[in-house]
Write a structure and sequence with these properties.
Largest sheet: 7 strands, mixed
Distance between the termini: 20 Å
CATH class of the largest domain: Alpha Beta
Structural class: alpha/beta
Radius of gyration: 23 Å
Number of strands: 18
Number of helices: 17
Strand content: 15-25%
CATH architecture of the largest domain: 3-Layer(aba) Sandwich
Helix content: 40-55%
Length: 422
């Protein structure tokens, strides 16, 4: 038994637990908790005609593939609300990752409304780049969206953003002519091995790797304040962590295993763990045998676990404003852009999966195999929070070591070892 295996989870857990750093404070804009004229119905955001909301320009940052869509929706919103006609809407193509980084760097110079991924929420709150969603608006967000999306938009007891998607996670694509039981990882591997086909999963990626560790019940979260990371809650050095590592090793040892998560780069594949962004490629790869479902279970030492993992959501944030009238317009516009009507139209335009409960029930959404598979998986997932950069590097190193056969899972002593040094 390689001694490195005996200590790998302890070392990894200690390293993850010590990953704290300093972050820079950004200047805070004045935060107003002014409520928008909240909608009583999901798609109604009509403003009182006798209120003067002022004039100005509202800048919106969204991903490039929804820029034109957002322009059209914003124009329709202003046309339907004459009280807001004093505002010009400028929509710019700035991706979710860049938007968050730019806002944190320069809140005052950033967009008034912007899309971002949920793992950036705490950084944006700390930077003073988000106006809390309060009162009727907060109740509307909570009522209209699925629980995962609402949780992703919430920090502490406060909602800070409007969910617009519930589709950033991973699940199983497979060839139904080869895989007879997609509910079990062991059965999937057996079918693929018998057919001489591959099963793809990127085990040296910290995003996908958590499907095993979270599946066995491990915790991996970090605490932050205005200075950055302040603490870690990591339980990899535990019996649960050992079970997860054994499962990763077993997968890597299968003749069918191939490390990867891109359908476009897959060859001779029977199954691949991937996300909605690759649905078109998966359908092209598997043709008439294209199928998708939640992640499978895996069994270690007689115990069976459901694979878990990270889930992700896209959110719309509103920057704090010193002008209460402009803030009200921004909140109303963000609410409209996250409504069931617009989420469904966005799905039809670019395929983004809705977070809105009503939109999720639309027959076209439910008929989408990838979105249906993700919806089945999300209840088992954990919304991705903020993680330090070193976490991803350590996760890659762990996966690389497994792939290089540096570890085995045969020693009866390493459970005792991990308990004794934890």
């Amino acid at each position: 038994m390689n001694k490195k295996l005996l200590s790998v989870l302890l070392v990894l857990a200690l390293a993850l637990g010590l990953l704290t750093g300093c972050g820079s404070k950004s200047s805070n804009a004045t935060q107003e908790e002014t409520n928008t004229p909240a909608a009583t119905e999901d798609t109604e955001t009509e403003a009182p005609a006798d209120v003067d909301y002022g004039t100005g320009t509202i800048t919106i940052w969204v991903a490039d593939n929804v820029k034109d869509f957002t322009e059209a929706q914003a124009a329709a919103f202003i046309e339907a609300n004459p009280a807001f006609a004093g505002y010009d809407i400028v929509v710019e193509a700035v991706g979710e990752g860049d938007a968050a980084g730019n806002m944190i760097t320069d809140v005052e110079g950033g967009a008034d409304i912007y899309g971002f991924a949920q793992d950036q929420l705490s950084r944006l709150v700390v930077a003073g780049a988000l106006t809390p969603v309060v009162g009727d608006n907060a109740a509307w967000v909570a009522e209209q969206n699925d629980a995962g999306a609402v949780g992703a938009a919430t920090m502490g007891d406060t909602i800070y953003a409007y969910p617009i998607t519930s589709d950033n996670g991973y699940f199983l694509y497979y060839d139904s002519s080869i895989i007879t039981d997609p509910s079990s990882l062991e059965a999937i591997l057996a079918d693929a091995e018998a057919a001489g086909k591959g099963v793809y999963m990127e085990i040296n990626n910290g995003w996908y790797q958590t499907s095993f560790f979270f599946g066995t019940g491990c915790e991996l979260t970090y605490d932050t304040d205005e200075n950055g990371f302040t603490g870690a809650n990591v339980t990899y050095a535990s019996d649960a962590g050992v079970q997860a590592l054994k499962a990763i090793i077993a997968l890597s040892n299968s003749p069918a295993f191939t490390n990867g998560s891109s359908v476009e780069n897959a060859t001779n594949a029977a199954a691949i763990i991937d996300g909605t962004w690759d649905a078109g490629n998966a359908q092209a790869l598997f043709g008439d045998n294209y199928a998708a479902t939640k992640l499978p279970t895996f069994t270690v030492d007689g115990n069976t676990y459901q694979m878990s993992g990270f889930s992700g959501f896209k959110l719309l944030g509103v920057k704090p404003q010193t002008d209460a009238g402009k803030l009200a317009v921004c909140q109303a516009l963000a609410q409209y852009l996250s409504s069931a009507e617009v989420q469904l139209a966005r799905f039809e335009a670019v395929g983004w999966g809705p977070s809105n409960i009503t939109a999720q029930q639309d027959p076209a959404v439910q008929a989408d195999p990838a979105l249906a598979a993700l919806a089945e998986q999300i209840p088992y997932d954990i919304p991705q929070g903020q993680y330090p950069g070193d976490y991803w590097g350590l996760a890659t190193s762990l996966g690389d070591s497994v792939i290089a056969n540096e570890y085995d899972n045969a020693s009866p002593g390493y459970l005792h070892f991990l308990r004794s040094v934890s």
